[in-house]
């Protein structure tokens, strides 16, 4: 469609961008416990934490829904040292941002919104958008939440029912769903397909400082049978310091996924796989590396995120304690 994605900042917070998407069902639930809310969203959408207080829910790239946004931004109230003393004050800041960023703005505060809100039309980079925004206070009055649905004017009527369903699912006490802080609950059932605890040891052929050939160091290989199409991800937990590399190869020998040792995140993303016999190889990433490791392969028939893995199987950054 050639549309642009437009970020707008209010008080240093990214408030509107990205996109939201298509089916009417809200199969997934995202709960941000620290901020005290949960919200439902369709299985075909993705979520992004833009920063420590902003959640973006969007459709996938390549669809019309990519150009639509449902956003929740949370602000500390003046009661606890924040900038805004009432929801209306925060809403006014958003209105000012619209006016300063668009040559033509039409704001209606009496129509669609429930509570303190507005519906506005404005332009960004030659595109006209329509936005429904509501600002509400948390029960303790210490946090204001700004919820917004934004879309190009031609897509707004199509995705408005989705936005209404999401708004209706939004709970401000954090009781909906059963996941931990900042985690997603989806219809995807993620299971452990393979796990092993082992150790890579230095071999005599690796003792020369001039020998950087990983092929001359110890390599451990494991066989994995995948019986149905779906998605897999790896996790590799090491001792603190050494670098090991775990790679997953498909039956043709093509590397499907890998987790290098010089990154903090123990998980890889999810990768599509077909039935067959796969091979996992663990090698030192540097010839001096020697470490115990925990290797796990996760499988689901549906695509899943690293945040979902972390919610189910442990933190994204961790080490084996010796």
Automatic annotation (TrEMBL):
Keywords noted in UniProt: Signal
Please verify whether the record's keywords include Signal: yes
Please identify the protein, giving its name as recorded: Peptidase C-terminal archaeal/bacterial domain-containing protein
In the UniProt record, the signal sequence range is 1-19
Source organism per UniProt: Bipolaricaulis sibiricus
